[in-house]
Design goal:
Chain A: It is found in: Cell membrane. The structure holds 2 protein chains of 2 kinds. Chain A is an all-alpha fold. Chain A is built from 8 helices and no strands. Chain B is an alpha/beta fold. In chain B, a hairpin with a 2-residue loop joins strand 9 and strand 10. The longest helix of chain B has 16 residues. The N terminus of chain B is likely disordered. The chains are: A mainly alpha, B alpha/beta.
Chain lengths: ~220, ~280
């Protein structure tokens, strides 16, 4: 049994490995697009102008209030009705980036608000503009504060890439599932998939701790 | 080193008019060194029901060092923060150099920025930028606000860091410096903008007494160099020996002001007597 499991795992590993690559790439693209938009939304949500603030809040609340799975389905199956057909990878990236932007904007806003008020006052007292204060004082410090939570969210997002299984993207879970359906060894193959997810998430969590210490050394 | 330009050339003529009308007390003319750099007229501020400042008038001349003392809650810090509009007054006018802001009208961000540029501020809690090196702390606003090049700004910053005896800290981060050192860096950062007046908001209150002395020494040098200064402080010896005028505030107003020895040793107002006794006879 154990020898069987190992030989099965070795046989599936190349296929699942390619699935893992897709999952990692999808997570990376979603985060790389989503987090900068999240930062932008965080700044816009803090704007003093209602005309800027209100639409941003609406966007964030919709993005956070809608399950990622629904957004994903909407983008892949729904948008073609509106004349926009996206491939599974593009659709998954767009959907997960949207969710990322909405969630991270709140994480980043929390980071910006955690920067001591005196920092803004010092910038103002030096005659710096709102824009420069944001760019040189608030955002660098706020992002440092937000990093642990952002990495935590990134790990969650990586796991959420398995939702793309439902739109037939050949990522880790869907490859495991198709092996399962042809061999009926669901337990064994899904176990391996779980191990492969862990192989990414565990070291990421460990790296976060190091990154956190490194970034906060001057604060 | 020279940090004060001739203040006469920088002061607008309208400021002089304000001074004449706002400060009728003859006695104070004695301590004046030049035309006013800061002129506050009818300054009022309240938070809800609580009146923090009640129609305060104050002129500070070029080169003058004014020490503001008084019990906490008297409005000293608020007054100081109104001068560079960190607090927006409800009524009255604030004139710094040739920049005048009327609290009755809408204060645009641009006007506020221009006024703040002429006043340097030192905070009780230093408020250095912890993510930037000491040198960048002093250079940043020079580049972004005054438009100096990186090289110009850094050269000026090094001059000022030398002046506060901290040039060797230039490439370290603020957290590596003691409180007293951080406050001296904060002074250098404010001076780097070539302000016409320096505002000090209890600069030594967060420091232990010994470390506070090194900050006071730098402030004393600054005063001797001719910088116009307004210092909110509980350091009575500093107020007595360094300032040109002591202003006593209580309950949102100026209750007494004048020559330092006179005010500190022989206060006229009952409230100042009580306060000064509390701080000098402990």
């Amino acid at each position: 049994m154990n020898a069987d499991l190992l030989s099965n795992w070795l046989e599936w590993l190349p296929d699942l490995g390619r699935g893992l690559q897709t999952s990692v790439l999808l997570a990376a693209v979603s985060l790389a697009i989503g987090i900068p938009i999240g930062l932008l939304l965080a700044v816009l949500v803090s704007s003093r102008r209602a005309a800027i603030r209100m639409p941003s809040i609406v966007l964030v609340e919709i993005g956070r209030g809608t399950p990622a799975l629904v957004v994903l389905q909407l983008v892949y199956f729904g948008l073609p009705n509106a004349g926009l057909t996206l491939g599974p990878f593009t659709a998954a990236s767009a959907a997960l980036a949207l969710t990322t932007a909405a969630y991270t904007s709140e994480i980043i806003r929390g980071g910006l608000e955690a920067v001591p008020k005196g920092e803004v006052e010092a910038s103002q007292a030096l005659g710096m503009s709102y824009r420069d204060t944001m760019r040189f004082v608030l955002i660098p410090q706020g992002m440092r504060i937000a990093i642990p939570a952002l990495v935590g969210f990134g790990i969650l997002m990586f796991q959420a890439t398995s939702l793309a299984f439902t739109i037939s993207l050949q990522e880790l879970l869907s490859r495991a599932y198709s092996i399962g359906s042809s061999t009926f060894l669901y337990f064994q193959v899904l176990l391996l998939a779980g191990v492969l997810y862990l192989a990414i998430t565990l070291p990421s969590g460990w790296l976060t701790g190091r990154l956190e210490r490194r970034l906060s050394r001057h604060l | 080193m020279e940090i004060v330009r001739d203040p006469q050339t920088r002061t607008g003529s309208d400021a002089v008019d304000v001074r004449a009308s706002a400060q009728p007390t003859d006695r104070l003319e004695v301590s004046r060194k030049g035309p006013p750099v800061v002129s506050l007229k009818g300054l009022s501020k309240h938070y809800g029901e609580n009146v923090v400042l009640d129609k305060v008038d104050l002129d500070v001349s070029a080169g003058e060092v004014v020490a503001m003392v008084g019990p906490s809650g008297a409005g000293k810090s608020t007054l100081l923060r109104c001068i560079n509009l960190l607090e927006v007054p409800d009524a009255g006018t604030v004139t710094v150099g040739d920049q005048c802001v009327d609290a009755g009208k809408e204060v645009s961000a641009k006007d506020a920025m221009r006024l703040r540029r002429t006043a340097g501020m030192v905070f009780q809690s230093f408020n250095l930028f912890p993510h930037l090196t000491v040198l960048r702390n002093v250079s940043l606003a020079q580049e972004r606000v005054l438009g100096r090049s990186r090289a110009e700004a850094d050269a000026r910053s090094m001059e000022l860091l030398e002046r506060v005896h901290l040039a060797h800290k230039a490439d370290t981060y603020p957290a590596r410096s003691s409180g007293g050192q951080q406050q001296r860096i904060a002074i250098a950062r404010a001076l780097a903008m070539d302000p016409q007046v320096m505002l000090f908001d209890e600069p030594t209150s967060a420091l232990d007494p010994e470390v506070g002395l090194e900050v006071l020494a730098v402030m004393r040098e600054l005063a001797e160099s001719g910088m116009t200064m307004i210092v909110v402080t509980h350091e009575i010896p500093f107020a007595r020996d360094v300032s040109d005028r002591v202003v006593v505030m209580a309950d949102g107003g100026i209750i007494e002001q004048g020559e330092p020895h006179q005010v500190i040793n022989n206060p006229q107002h009952e409230r100042s007597q009580r306060f000064l006794r509390a701080v000098t006879e402990r």
